[in-house]
Design brief:
Length: 658
């Protein structure tokens, strides 16, 4: 007999239907997804293990994603350095072919290998000099001022006898006196000849070099100048153009941009690391003319950035050193060209010792000289320094930063000395020797660039080479006020930073990225290419200028040799500079390859770990879909039956009951 349902029985049937509906939903979810539950609560005691495993999986996947980005950067850097290596190897081959030419005969020579003595008055030659193969001969008479002159050509007998001979005979006698002295000195050779009929002295090219005031007179006439053959000229032009285009191509490789940053910028992501403002070889040679302005010959000069104005120097005075020389002096009248780098003291340097025999300065504090580098100009000040208070060029700084070795220029270390706690010494720096300084705001009559050759011991005078046609002459010094709109600047080709970044590629491994466009390997390459691409590869200087070493007959050969040495060191220095980071391309590429190998190995390991974690999670979370589908069908039947019973019970009325 059917009973009239009560509220309690109704709620009981509703709950049973709801439970059956929940089971149907769960089994349907399991059948469609293969997972036990849509929420962690449905996994029971396995929930904690699942959460832990998923956390490990997320960490692994994050490492894999960031490593993929890092791998892209390394691949791009590897492509760039490989391209640079190919470019420099190609240029090296060209340079080796060029060096196989007779470079001693490639430099044009204004003397043409002959000098004709045109004056018949022997006195016209007295006091004049002629430098032959580095030996300076002086034409003299019996005047006491010439006593003690080395390599004199005494013309007194010729002068005394001049009235008895023709002008042509007198000139020939002067030539004979020169030959006699050269034979006495042992410098006469079969390469020289004298034609007494034409009063002509003939010699191999490039033997008349150095100070030769004889060439500036009306008493001699020089021969037709030697010029390069068209083949030599074409070969040289091709080499220099190749050097320039190789340099520009390497700039492009180092200015590579990927993943939103410049990869060789040392942490500076928004600015191209290499500044190369030249579009053509002609522009490059107009700046680096190879005579008064040569391409920087050391890393310190090439990577220096300085800015000096009147606030630091006071007014400055510009003046050439003499009438013919391209040497000049820039004087600071109310300051100096120095920037203090280190102030000695117990904490900064500790005790200091100077060693004149080794040209070293030693501190007792580790890292005392870490902010100084090889090639820097160093000026030591302070009364306690005594005779050692002067200017130096740093040769090297020890790895522990405690020892400076200086070049044996300017006399080197003057005397041995021990100074407790550094005394009152200061260590200052300035434009390194070889730095090209831009002269801004001085007007069009001043050389737009000068090149530093040295600095005075007190730092108030900067010694430079200049364009002689655009600089105040000797005796006509020009002063510029301190508050004038002028400045003297030098710019490093490298515009990036020096930040090295550590990338963690797993919980226990990391990779350090410390390769920048300023690394010694790249700096040497730029220096080698600039050495060849600059102007005056074959000397164009006028040997009649009264300058020591006017004609450098080894100019071309020296530059080619220097460039080849730099390229060899940049490609593989064989451990010669072990203290220098990234000293050659071999080291850089080995480092990149090593990073890529580690990344690949890590990626393989992380892939295995990821697969294992996913399998473990899946085993804890998954169910048999076929079984879940069967259970869902049964749950559906039960739910339908439940709804049917509920409907029947709820439709029973009191009338039906009665």
């Amino acid at each position: 007999m059917t009973r009239v349902p009560t509220y309690a029985t109704y709620m009981n049937m509703v709950n049973q239907a709801t439970n059956l509906r929940s089971k149907l939903d769960l089994y349907s979810f399991q059948a469609s997804t293969g997972l036990k539950s849509p929420t962690y609560s449905g996994y029971g005691m396995s929930a904690y293990n699942i959460v832990s495993l998923e956390a490990s999986l997320n960490i692994t996947e994050n490492f894999m994603n960031t490593n993929d980005i890092l791998n892209v950067e390394l691949e791009v850097m590897n492509t760039s350095t490989s391209s640079i290596q190919d470019l420099i190897n190609d240029f090296k081959s060209q340079l080796l072919n060029f060096s196989g030419m007779d470079l001693d005969n490639i430099n044009p020579d204004i003397t043409g290998g002959e000098i004709t003595f045109t004056s018949g008055n022997p006195s016209d030659y007295v006091g004049k000099t002629l430098t032959i193969n580095g030996t300076e001969y002086t034409f003299v008479d019996d005047d006491p001022q010439y006593a003690g002159v080395e390599h004199p050509i005494n013309l007194q007998t010729v002068i005394d006898d001049a009235g008895n001979h023709t002008a042509e005979e007198n000139a020939a006698a002067v030539l004979d006196a020169m030959k006699t002295q050269m034979e006495a000195d042992g410098t006469w050779s079969a390469d020289f000849s004298i034609d007494t009929e034409k009063n002509k002295f003939e010699f191999p090219l490039y033997t008349i070099n150095g100070t030769s005031t004889l060439l500036n007179t009306d008493s001699v006439e020089m021969g037709e100048p030697h010029t390069m053959s068209s083949e030599q000229y074409q070969t040289m032009q091709q080499l220099q153009q190749s050097a320039f285009t190789t340099m520009a191509a390497i700039v492009d490789s180092l200015n590579t941009f990927a993943n939103g940053k410049y990869l060789f910028g040392g942490g500076v992501s928004t600015q191209a690391p290499v500044d190369f403002p030249f579009q053509t070889l002609e522009e490059f040679q107009a700046y680096y003319n190879g005579a008064s302005i040569t391409y920087p010959s050391n890393a310190a000069a090439q990577l220096s950035s300085w800015n000096v104005d009147g606030s630091q120097t006071g007014s400055i005075t510009l003046e050439r050193d003499d009438a013919l020389s391209d040497r000049a002096t820039i004087t600071a009248n109310g300051g100096s060209f120095l920037t203090t780098k280190i102030t000695a003291g117990a904490e900064a340097t500790g005790d200091l010792s100077f060693d004149a025999s080794d040209n070293t300065i030693k501190a007792t504090q580790y890292g005392a000289f870490n902010n100084l580098s090889a090639g820097d100009t160093l000026v030591i000040g302070g009364t306690d320094a005594g005779n050692n208070a002067k200017a130096y060029v740093i040769k090297s700084v020890s790895a522990d930063g405690k020892t400076i070795t200086v070049e044996d220029t300017n006399g080197g270390i003057a005397e041995d000395m021990e100074i407790a706690n550094g005394g009152d010494l200061t260590f200052s720096s300035s434009f390194p020797v070889g730095t090209v300084v831009n002269m801004d705001g001085f007007g069009s009559n001043i050389s737009p660039q000068v090149q530093v050759t040295g600095i005075s011991d007190d730092g108030t005078q900067l010694y430079v080479t200049v364009d002689t046609s655009r600089f105040p002459a000797n005796g006509e010094a020009q002063t510029f006020a301190a508050d004038g709109n002028w400045s003297m600047t030098s710019e490093s080709y490298y515009q990036g930073g020096n930040l090295s970044s550590e990338h963690r590629i797993s919980e226990n491994q990391s990779i350090t990225m410390d390769i920048t466009a300023a690394d010694p390997a790249f700096e040497k390459i730029f220096r080698a290419l600039g050495e060849i691409a600059q102007g005056n590869l074959t000397t164009s200087l006028d040997p009649t200028m009264d300058i020591d070493g006017t004609i450098d007959f080894d100019n071309t050969a020296s530059r080619v040799e220097d460039a080849l040495n730099l390229i060899s060191e940049a490609l593989f220095n064989g451990g010669k500079s072990t203290s220098a980071s990234n000293g050659d391309l071999y080291t850089i590429q080995a480092k990149i390859d090593s990073h890529m190998v580690i990344l690949n190995q890590t990626a393989e390991n992380q892939t295995l770990v990821k697969n294992n974690l996913e399998n473990s999670i899946t085993s804890l979370k998954s169910v048999d879909k076929d079984e879940a589908a069967l259970q869902a069908v049964l749950a559906s039947y039960n739910l339908q039956a439940s709804y049917a019973v509920m409907q029947m019970a709820m439709s029973t009325t009191i009338l039906d009951y009665l």
